[in-house]
Amino acid sequence: MINEALGLPELASEHGQLVDQMMELLNWFIAILLVGWSTFFVFCLFRFNRKANPKASYIGVRSHASSHLEIGVVLVEAILLLGFAFRLWGERVDNYPTGDDTVRVRAIGYQFGWALHYPGPDGKFGEFDFNKVSGASPEAQIGLSREGHGADDIIRGQLTLPKGRPAIVYVTSKDVIHNFAIKSMRIAQDAIPGMEVPMWFTPIKEGDFDIVCGQLCGSGHAAMAGILTVVPNEKFVAEFEGGGKEAAPAATTEVVATVGN
Ligand SMILES: [Cu+2]
Predict the structure, then answer these.
(1) Where are the beta strands (DSSP E) in 139-201?
(2) Alpha carbon of 111 to ligand 1 centroid (Å)
(3) C-alpha 191 – ligand 1 centre gap (Å)
(4) Residue 159 C-alpha to ligand 1 middle, in angstroms?
(5) How do the domains of the chain map onto residue ranges?
(6) For 204-247, how does the pLDDT look when each residue is reduced to its tens digit (9 = 90+)?
(7) Which of 66, 90, 114, 186 could share a disulfide with 19, CB 3.0–4.6 Å?
(8) Residue 109 C-alpha to ligand 1 middle, in angstroms?
(9) Bridge pairing between strands 159-162 and 207-213
(10) Cα 116 to ligand 1 centre (Å)
């Protein structure tokens, strides 16, 4: 209820329900704290004003009510952390997708955009060649080599994923720290140069969802907005996995890569 009032983007991933539940609880908890402490503050303004207390008390409060309140707050926070946050985290870590239907994509952040790198029909990512790096296109940004496994790789400026299949996005950066954030999937991961960190989720709704850069990364930070398009599986297989045909050896595979947005 509070989530909707705060304008949380549409939920479109399998695990997102748990994230929303936790946010809903936290928002209620914070709302109660806000009302409680604000009321107490206003009460103090009147109860301890100069007129009611012409002479200052050097002893102060003797009741332990505030300590008990504080202990209560700590307890509720411990329940939130141990009961909900840890459970959510445990579920995330335990459910790392390993099945054959898992989609694998690399997301490389650069100033200022994202290159989405699909392994193509052979299911294997190509290598990189530093001599090919330039700013001409998302493909040139990462300097993909078209030799070997890279021959059939597909590079896009936007992300496309199939509905209902677990997806692992390996997030990294070419230059500074970015953050690959897809709010509707309730997921975000820092893109750190030199590290490739997997983040995974299962889209459960077709449609277009916003991707943003979640780390202030320079003057073009706001331009790093992208779109995740969730499509039916058949469409994804036809476009990114060679139509489900047996992968041909890389050397003879036709180059199906398209460049740009
Ligand atoms: Cu960025």
Answers:
(1) 154-156, 159-162, 167-173, 178-182, 187-191, 197-201
(2) 6
(3) 8
(4) 16
(5) 2-94, 103-252
(6) 999 999 999 999 999 999 989 999 999 999 999 999 888 755 44
(7) 186
(8) 7
(9) unpaired
(10) 14
Question: Cis omega (within 30 of 0) on the bond before 84?
Answer: no
123 phi and psi angles, rounded to 5 deg: 70, 10
The SS3 of residue 169 is strand
Residues around the ion ligand 1 (C-beta < 5 A): 178, 213, 217, 224
Cα 195 to Cα 20, 34, 191, 192, 207: the distances in Å are 29, 40, 8, 6, 30
Half-sphere exposure of 182 (CA within 13 A, CB side): 28
**Contact at 8 Å (CB) between 188 and 179?**
yes
Q: Which CATH class is domain 2-94?
A: mainly alpha
Q: Going by CATH, does the domain composed of 103-252 fall within 2.60.40.420? A: yes
The 10s digit of each residue's pLDDT in 125-182 is: 888 888 888 887 878 888 888 888 888 888 898 999 999 999 999 999 999 999 999 9
Distance in Å, CA 212 to ligand 1 centroid: 8
Is residue 14 within 8 A of residue 202, CB to CB? The reply is yes
Cα–Cα–Cα angle for 94, 11, 238, rounded to 5 degrees:
80
Distance 188 CA to ligand 1 centre (A): 12
Q: How far apart are CA 124 and CA 254, in angstroms?
A: 15
Q: Tokens in use for 126?
A: 């190509």
ipTM of the complex: 0.92
Continuous segment of H or E residues that includes residue 231: strand 226-231
- CA–centroid distance, 53 to ligand 1, in Å, is 56
